Every structure is written in C-alpha cells, then in structure tokens.
Amino acid sequence: MSRDPACYPRSNRLKGVVHLPPIFNAQSISQSYDATPLFRSIAFTIEEGDRIGVIGPNGSGKSTLLQILSGTIEPDSGELAVRKHVRLSLARQRGSWHHAFVGG
Questions:
Q1: 65 DSSP 8-state letter
Q2: Per-residue model confidence as pLDDT tens digits over 43-64
Q3: Can you give the residue ranges of every domain in the chain?
Q4: What pTM was estimated for this model as a whole?
C-alpha cells in the first residue's frame, strides 16, 4: 500500500500538508576498525515522526553509527543522505564512570 498522498483522490488528501523527504536515508553503510567489521551494508530510512532506539552489546558500533549520522566520521562505504536544515546533537560518552554515594 502506497503512502504517497498523490495516489488518493484529491478529496481525501489533507489540505496544506507538506510531504517532506526522509530525515536520513542510509544505503549500504559499512564501517570497520582495523580488520574488525562493526557493520556491513546496513540500510535504513528515518522519516518525520519516527522513534528510534539503537541497542546492542558493547563494541557493536552503536556510537559509531550515531557519529556517522552526525557527520563526525565518514563511513568506510555507502551513502548517507540527510535532509537539508537537519541538525543532530550527539552527547559524548565518558571513558569511565564515577560512582557516587547518595545517602538518604
């Protein structure tokens, strides 16, 4: 089933609604460190209103993928299209965690 509003009769289309291109469109993204691949040929699209979770074990490439999306690093291969005027913020991870005692 197509999500393109042009396929619906004019009377059923929402007036004034602008269809925007995807926020991110990734095709065949691959990244490795040394000889160790983090991910190979992944593809995804993030549209307006999508809710995304990035989960996986330590060292699986979650932070690296987010750095690619933010433009901090370039993927080894593949293409990433980012909608114009999109701004992505990335909170850096700390190298070590400091535990504090909170008494009550």
A1: H
A2: 999 999 999 999 999 989 999 9
A3: 22-82
A4: 0.69
